[in-house]
Design a protein that fits this description.
This protein is of the alpha/beta class and about 350 residues long. The chain contains eleven helices and 14 strands. The protein is globular.
Length: about 350
Amino acid sequence: MKMLSNLSVGTDFISIDVGSTSIRALELKGSSMPKSLARYAAAPIPDQISRSDAPEDRQKLASEIRKLLDDSGFKEENVVVGIPSGRVFATVVDFPKLPTKELHKTITYQLDNHIPSSIDEVKVDWSVLGDSPAGNDKVEVLIASVGNKFAEDRLDLFESIGLNVVALEPDALALVRSLVSYSYAGSALLLDIGSNATDLVVVDNQMPKLIRSLPIGGSNFVKSASQNLNVDDERANEFVYKFGLNTGKLEGQVARALQPTVDSLTSEVNKSIKFFSNRYKRERIDKIIVTGRASTIPNLALEIANATGTQVEIGNSWQNVNYPQSQLNQLQQIANHFTVAIGLSLRTEQ
């Protein structure tokens, strides 16, 4: 799935992930998989400029991106840029099994019926996933759309600092490449728990079958701690990431304060597991893979495992990348921050 792409085989590029509180840039080298790590860098940004559509904030964001690239020694001008999942509508739709040209015509003709916005207001892309569980005469198609204004503003932002955007891609698709091993053929649920939201992707045999953006992130845990423990945000943040859901610390006060937010998150995860199980009756989710800064909250992975009855793993975002063993410890410490950037860098589509 390209969304918007001028990427061709052999193109060298930098992947850029603009998160809510930081920017990540990464460059891989190599003409075949696995590619090798060449350079990476990150820098914090104010939350308000990352989510703002105001021209002055976009200008500030552009300046921060340019500074990060210059300070870190990136030279390449081609970039692949992630699209936050909250800006993307994605759905899996069943279509009749037809010859390729006829199928593409049918999808194009029916797009308006499957996206919430007018076809004139969005950029749309689709990808045929394979046979549908709805019948042997149908195929599954993943359809994704992003508003024209957001896409064009993002293009303008990068072009204003001398960069050439060769592809825009939903963050959720990048997660699949970085969190799922090339050899894995099962079904897994991916959770990227960021500062303000969580990206949820159910993948089966390397294919995304469900994509959701949940309005629950690290900031919600901090807010719960602040309100329920009557402390300021700075102190609450310290409690969340130091004690988390460990009931043996501070007499379990922090764990109890965070429980409503945990319940909200696991409730949505269970809904997604149920949806997948109802649609794909012969499949079951083998594991949940978590990443993102909030995934490091003590005992959160254990709480998710207990609430869902499913094995939970901490994602290894570097598993499909070559890197010097001397950098292993350093890279593992930042793996949950670079998941999207790594996935974007692993693109191979034309």
